[in-house]
Amino acid sequence: MSVAAPAVAAVMVVVLIIEPPALLPGERIPTLRVLTARTGAGLDAEQMGAAIAWGQRGEPEPYVLNRVPSTRTPVDEGEAAGAVYTPFLRIAWVAHAREQSGRPLTIEEVPNWLAAPVVYVALRAPPVARADAPGPPWLAFVPADTATCCLDPQPTLVRPLWVTDDPAVLARFGAPVPFSDLGLVAAYPIDVLRGGFDFVAFYRGRGPDGPASIEMRGRLDASELERWR
Question: How far is residue 49's CA from residue 183's CA, in Å, rounded to a whole number?
Answer without folding.
Answer: 32
